[in-house]
Amino acid sequence: MTLAVLDLCFSYGPGGRRLEGISFSAGARDVVCILGPNGSGKTTLLRCLIGGLAIASGRITLAGQDATRLPPRRLARLVAYVPQGTQSVFGHRVLDIVMMGRSAHLRHFQTPGPRDEEIAVAALERVGIAGLAERSFSTISGGERQLCLLARAVAQKPAVLILDEPAASLDFANQARILDILAGLADGGLAVVMTTHHPDHALQIGTQVLGLRDGRVIADGPASRVLDEGFLTGLYGTPIRVIRSPDGLAACRPCPSHASTGVF
User: Which parts pass through the membrane (predicted)?
Assistant: First the structure.
């Protein structure tokens, strides 16, 4: 299934932040990484994609259907969303949180059944935290919570997975874990759209890159072509070097004007 965005425009009102002329697509096995500085419109764009904000003009389609006209339950069966984080004040178990991903597949007032629980447990196993199933969501670490929210999205069994900075505030090990899971989900046929403040993540798993600045796309295309020093420097407004190792690995490093020169 392909998520396609054509000339999307959105505004919070006079003087508010806006998006103008956003176009891109994400199909099965794509990982579209949306990059941009703070306030560039990344999260606003995601909220438009999931129906949380009404667009002013343009089109959002799923397999050719107008996504803005789909009933919420139908949309939730096609698209899953992973926010940056969430809090639970009711003491839900980790398994309970993941089971919530099954709600789009249930009738009104229907409770999850054994098959839904099997799917939720399999999702926990997929992200590697099945051992936390009976723990309270409020007592696990930030990285474990992010994996739990990802498991909830996996249990939803969508065709398109949308994530807002899935590796934000995570240590290196959990960042690598999240990226590995996302790459695996894409390989399995999902379309993945994610925002990130880490260009390195786009270098590692991105197939397409969308660069946003001030609500506009300044560059888009295959990650291998777009992610160079000129693009990243222009996007973030500070010198950035892309460092490549002899074995083909690449990493980005900001270079403040006061930094000393030397060998990286």
Answer: none
